[in-house]
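Ligand-bound model needed. pyridoxal-5'-phosphate.
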Amino acid sequence: MCPPASKDSVPPPARPPALSLPLSLPHAPPDLSLSAFEQQLQWARAQDEADPLAELRACFAQPRAADQTPLVYLCGHSLGLAPLAARARVEAEIADWERLGVLGHEQARTAWLDYAEGLRAPLAALTGALTSEVVVMNSLTVNLHLLLASFYRPDAQRRAILMEAGAFSSDRHAAATQIAWHGLAAGEELIELAPRPGEALLRIEDVEAAIARHGARLALVLWPAVQYLSGQRFDVARVVRAAHAAGCPVGLDLAHAIGNVPLALHEDAADFAVWCSYKYLNGGPGAIGGAFVHERHFHDEARPRLAGWWGHEPRSRFQLRPEFSAATGAAAYALSNPPILSAAPLRAALPLFEAAGLPALRRKSAGLTAYLELLLGALAHGLLDQITPHDPEQRGCQLSVRVRAGPAAARSVWRTLGARGVVCDVRDPDVLRLAPVPLYNRYEDVLRGAWQLCLALREPGTAA
Ligand SMILES: Cc1ncc(COP(=O)(O)O)c(C=O)c1O
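Prediction:
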């Protein structure tokens, strides 16, 4: 049904080649005429035709407006598109359930007993982990709590958690309530690092300095690999090195990183990481999440773990003995038997990453985002402030921009975009987030989205 992309057709580059971008776009006055658009469209379509990953788009359902016009979908940072094969995967499980009842645990076409097991290897490839370091379970915040229960072990000297100010709310709730769970005051023990005054992004050297400064009282560093609002990608290895030098473990939130940027969790020596699968992994709304625990913690008997029967070693799990005997590796963290229907779409989505090859995806991602940056920089000059780093190494595919005219204007532009078939999102106070996803977006999508955004910004009523 869906044409498999051949990664053989994409030579794996040591580094992305220089981008050939279209004709220079003068800053002022921006030319938003039809002919300027068509000139760009010609260029964008030429890129799409030359794109070795172009056929992957046909593996995804394309959302449409009520009149059946395809939407320009730039919202994979929130919910990735549905792989066309997902429906068949889910229907196969329902059919097996209807046909087999409880026997499906062993006799389903993909036995339910091993269902989550089968997802570990492709997720290990995406996270740069050993298969044994990955477990597929729950959703992100649940996994964060489970891993904090193991890795946040405050004592008399080390009680604090260091995280970024402006972290995703759920991460902050998790950290603050874990501190309270230990009978401590989040007001004292949650240290939140903000960017320098007047700056929107955290400098990695400031993160390192904060870790060193607070080091003696830190029980844990909790950090995102890609920040959800700004799209800033952090150098995970440097964060981990700084934390370990200070003598404390590091947990990572990969919600906006997995499937978006290269990760090397094992080599970088992160202690644990958690993720959701509904963004760049295209696992579907509320899809089963995952977690990573570094191999060096596998036999750490002193570290407590909240346990359930699915974390019991599989051979004797069904003996249902009262004593817990942990499965090897991250699998010991699983609590419950996995939700098959929420895991099934991932079985459709993950092979697409394998088919594309991560270097090729990253190269296309950089090209799409650079084009978006170029268009917005030229056509919305003075109307938007990009907060995502300009350096491609410090971002994934998401570009976040602040609307200078303010929060009301940002909402109004976002509504206008929605009415014109461009799907992105708006976050307080005035941030628009757009993400061209290399698995299914085209240069043409980037152009159409950026063009509509620039037109909307210039419309009467948009100004503050
Ligand atoms: C950065 C980040 N952390 C945590 C979450 C919460 O995820 P969940 O609802 O799966 O717990 C999200 C959800 O979008 C997120 O973007």
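The pocket of pyridoxal-5'-phosphate is lined by residues 139-141, 168, 170-171, 228, 253, 255-256, 276, 289 (CB under 6 Å).
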